[in-house]
Amino acid sequence: MWHSSDIAEQLPLQLLSLGFSWRQEDLALRQVGLHELPCHTLHLGDWSAYFTKSRNGRPVLICGGYRYNQNKESNTPSAWWRCGKARICGCKASVTTYDTPVFTMTRFGKPAIQMGKYRFNRNNRSNGARSLWVCGRVSSGCRATITTFNDIIIKEKKEHNH
């Protein structure tokens, strides 16, 4: 999972004024538009990103303190996210992510996370707000895991053996 503490200090101000893109591990974000309408105030010092779910169970991306809703679901590893205020005030900001985690259900009704081509199942011993998710190929010896806290990915071990 991609994490950043202060991406604004690492990128030239010119890039921030035109939109930005960067790649770290398997997740890349590209923001188009910078919330030019009065519905937002841009804070350059807070560019962390994480995924969560809305009250209706739909995927939500929080990036730089702004909320983005997934525009449409697709089977590709990339996803396009629109500003949460796009319909209210016409904000044109958007983010593109690659290898986006999608919270789903297995065919047996158990919770799962689809991350690119890999599926993670929640460990049976996980209860409460913190959950451990193991790769669907754990029986074949894969040790890749994801740790979530209240459906927010906080840690990821990405080494798959398949």
Key descriptive features of the protein:
162 residues, mainly beta, 3 helices, 9% helix, single chain, disordered N terminus
Main sheet overview: 7 strands, antiparallel
How much helix, percentage-wise, in residues?
Answer: under 10%
Report the principal-axis shape.
elongated
**What amount of the residues lies in strands?**
35-45%
Low-confidence stretches: 1-32, 36-46
Calculate Rg over CA atoms: 17 Å
Q: Give the N-to-C terminal Cα separation.
A: 19 Å
Average pLDDT figure: 70
- How do the helices and strands follow one another from N- to C-terminus? HHEEEEEEHEEEEEEE
Strand order, main sheet: write it out: 1-2-7-6-5-4-3
Tally the beta strands: 13
Give the helix/strand class: mainly beta
- Overall structural domain count: 2
Q: How many alpha or pi helices?
A: 3
Give a short summary of the structure.
The chain has 162 residues and is mainly beta.
What does this structure look like?
This protein has helices spanning 7-10, 13-18, 86-89; strands spanning 20-24, 27-32, 49-53, 59-63, 66-70, 78-83, 94-98, 101-105, 111-115, 118-122, 130-135, 145-149, 152-157. Mean pLDDT is 70; it is low at 1-32 and 36-46. 9% of the residues lie in helices and 43% in strands. With 162 residues, the protein is mainly beta. It folds into 2 domains: 7-98, no CATH class; 102-157, no CATH class. The chain starts with 6 loop residues before the first helix and ends in a 5-residue tail after the last strand. The chain is built from 3 helices and 13 strands.
